Amino acid sequence: MTPASDVGSIEAPTTPIDTARTGTTHRFGRFVERRAVLLAAVLIAAVCAVQVLLGIVPTRIYAQDLFIFMDGAWRLASGQLPQQDFYAGFGVLLWRPLQLAFTLTGFDASGMGIARALFTGVVGVWTLLLLRRRVPGWVLLVATAASLVLTSAARPIGEHADLLSNAMFYNRIGFAVVFIILLDTMFLAGLWPAFTRTPVGDGLWRGVSTGAAVVALALLKVSFVIPAVLIAAAGLLIWRTSRRHLLGIAAGGVGVALAGLALGWRPVPWIVEMARLSRARSTSVLDSVALVVADDGLLLAFVLALCFGLLAVVVAPRPLVLRYLASTLVVVGADVYARATNMQRGDLPLTAVWALVGAILLVGYATSVRPPRARAIAAIGAALAVLVPVAVPYFARDARSTMLAARTVVLGEADSPRIDAPRLAGFDTAFWTGSKTENGALYVAIIDDGLALAERYSDPDESIGSLGFSNPFSVALGRPAAHGGAPWLHPDNNFPKDGPIDAEVLVGEPEVLLVPAYREIASDGDAHRFDEVLDDYDLVGSSPYWTIYRHDPR
């Protein structure tokens, strides 16, 4: 197989590099090079500590999503397995860390901070180990910091920096793991050696990383598998690989699959559930992609292709230019697909990290190859040209959201009404935007009303289900987890917006069922679709916001 260095690379200097005249001899530069791994480890630990201390971030949007995570984790703690025992929506590699985190806090809502710290720590250490001894210290630090910000930010991707929430945090993990795949199959496999004439060593362990990442995404959130495979396959074709790299990919994938089996992954129920989820969306993938492209994907693709094309012409031979532009189009395409299939209202995270990678390459070229002064200046200028308009705004929004969450907690600004349940007492859900039944005082009143109704009309050993968006009642009251059903109900997400539904799969077999009276079930026009389930229940009580039914075993 053809190594990247044989398919077009920047010409190395004909005279030895005088290290006394380079920036790496500066005291700070030497310190960074010697202590890069330690500095990265400290940064990872600090970000994880912040997430643990924040617990459940002050929530300003999508408050109900917290109970998806708590209910799913509660089910696993009760001995259930995702896909096999309930309609999980996500894989075992999301649910097991959530179960561990909430178990450590006695299923207090603050366990969400521990869960996010676990995922952030894994991603940060993974990035560090992948890049260690393969790139200069400053590259290691920049890439690790980028992966940490991408994973840990306190806003859902696509939302304004002020709209704090843990909702859809799994999308952040997905994008971060795809970034790790990108670092192996494109950055280390071809781009960094070509731009800097620096070898990156054996590909076996890099391959293990990529194989593990692809299978991990399948067992986390399957919608990220296609972008991951697209980037991995394109990287292998564009930048070539070695047999040891391919062997590593196979070994990494098998290793994670075996770990998944040990953690409770069951392949056959998983395949059945993935097929059901694929039929839940009324909009085709192509239509969703078209909407994203019409929004801003095409513009970003054009800007990136133009900027990278111009800078590559300045500093690189034509074969490298073509391969680099091909990689750019693949990454942007994967990003557009990921956004289209993940209910994301804005942002293109992979495009942002790809712009960051481009800036790293240009700075690496200017500092490693020692080109003529004019070319070095042009390279640094081009790095800023692609970094500032594309990557900086995205990472700035992410960083600002986390700083805002920390400030809100430290200054005691999280003073909204709290749900009247010990496990949820720390959950700050101030009204900010969206439906009043999803955040703020009214949402708290709705949940409190449901909790009181459940305590009044059900026994402590009875399981509780809900036809609301999510089910906070079982975990808040410490009730047995109902068998079957889904941790959330969302048309056009985990069940079809139109047409027949498998109500028994969605609702399961709870002994007591709470039906929201403040709105129709799940969404406009959906109430009648659950009549088949309600036929098996008897009405036993009601309140301003809920109606409660008990299962009739007849």
From TrEMBL:
Keyword Cell inner membrane applies: no
Positions of transmembrane segments: 36-57, 114-131, 169-192, 212-239, 246-268, 288-314, 321-340, 352-369, 376-396
Region span, Disordered: 1-21
Keywords (A to Z) from UniProt: Membrane, Transmembrane, Transmembrane helix
Name listed for the protein in its UniProt record: Glycosyltransferase RgtA/B/C/D-like domain-containing protein
